[in-house]
Amino acid sequence: MRGFGIILISLGLFLLFCGLLRYRQASKERLVKRLEFFSEAHRALPGQKGEKNDFRARMLAVLRKLSLFWNDVHKAADLDFRMQQADLPLLGTEFQTGLAVLGVLGAAVGGILIQTVIGVLLGALTGVIAGLMWLSIRIKRRQDAFVGQLGDMLTMVSNALRSGFSFMQAIELVAQEMGDPMSKELTKAIAEIRIGTSMDKALEEMARRMQSSDFELAVTAVEIQRQVGGNLAQILDTICETVENRVRMRREIATMTSQGRMSGMVLVVLPFVIAAALYFVNPGYLQPLFEEPTGRMAIGGAIVLEIIGCIVIKRIVDIKM
Questions:
Q1: Which of 176, 221, 229 is nearest to 203 (CA)?
Q2: Where is pLDDT greater, at 209 or 27?
Q3: CA dist., res. 39 & res. 214, Å (int)
Q4: CA–CA separation, 279 vs 296, rounded Å?
Q5: Which of these, 49, 32, 37, lies nearest to 191 by C-alpha position?
Q6: Whether 195 contacts 273, CB under 8 Å
Q7: Global pTM value
Q8: DSSP assignment of 196-248, as one string?
Q9: Which helix (H) or strand (E) is 72 found in, with range?
Q10: Of 110, 135, 162, 164, whose Cβ has the fewest other Cβ atoms within 10 Å?
């Protein structure tokens, strides 16, 4: 009888604990729904398809479950910000989980191809680096697309202001009419403003995500106009002309430095391509490079010279404006 009472008490405590957890989770869900309602985050952008019941949604769900294992170990605040820059529906820890998966796949491929511990390590390193490079390229392309839309955005805002719209109404109109990434970034800024963030702070965060000096110039002009007054439409027209001139100059510089950038790419890729071709044609030909001390010194020196050459070429072709 005493044992039966202990079992009942334990079961009651367990059910009470489960109920408290459920109540806490329900409170979080209600808070999220309220924030989505006021920020209109539940509304899809024009042309955006729902992710329910498709392969991408299932993969994201698996990735989120895997990331729970180290969610409390490292919060990856910097990666969280980079996820926002890349417009990926992931947290930093979830992207770290994806990098780990790429590392495991790369290690498996490297182990199969080279069949040594070095091959496993190189494969894992290649998988992680490939994931980070993909993220950087995605962010860079998104930022470049944003800069390309900036002139049209400023023109539309200026015309809307002349038509009698307020600045908030003008950016809402631009968010509805323009495409990604401008529309998504403006939608985020509008959502932040609706849940209590000041307009200046929301625009500054948008400029920080896009890392655009041109947009920072426009944000500064808006902040000054809100403080001291003035004709904002005329100011935006002037900034728009400046931005278009800067974009045109950047394109001209990119055209003139394209040969140097291509040389840098060839400098990085060609040695690895030749080494892979020689390995598959004659595997024993490259063995002295890995087995002899002189060969390992030659590999180390070649890698150092490769890095120096890439840095020099990057400094030559990367012209700051």
A1: 221
A2: 209
A3: 27
A4: 16
A5: 37
A6: no
A7: 0.66
A8: T--HHHHHHHHHHHHT-HHHHHHHHHHHHHHHH---HHHHHHHHHHHHHHHHH
A9: none
A10: 164
Query: Tell me, what's the pLDDT at 48?
Result: 45
pLDDT in tens, 212-264: 888 888 888 888 888 887 788 888 888 888 888 888 888 888 888 888 888 88
Which pair of tokens denotes residue 86? 């890349």
Q: Which of 243, 206, 239, 207 lies closest to 221, judged by CA?
A: 239
Q: How crowded is the C-beta side of 218, counted as CA atoms within 13 Å? A: 30
Which residue shows structure tokens 């990666």?
Answer: 79
Q: How confident is the model at residue 45 (pLDDT cuts 50, 70, 90)?
A: very low
Q: What tokens were used for 182?
A: 């401008």
Residue with tokens 């000096």: 213
What is the percent of the chain where pLDDT is above 90? 1
CA R_g for the chain: 27
Query: Which residue do the tokens 């598959």 mark?
Result: 280
Q: How far apart are CA 89 and CA 94, in angstroms?
A: 10
pLDDT reported for residue 44:
43
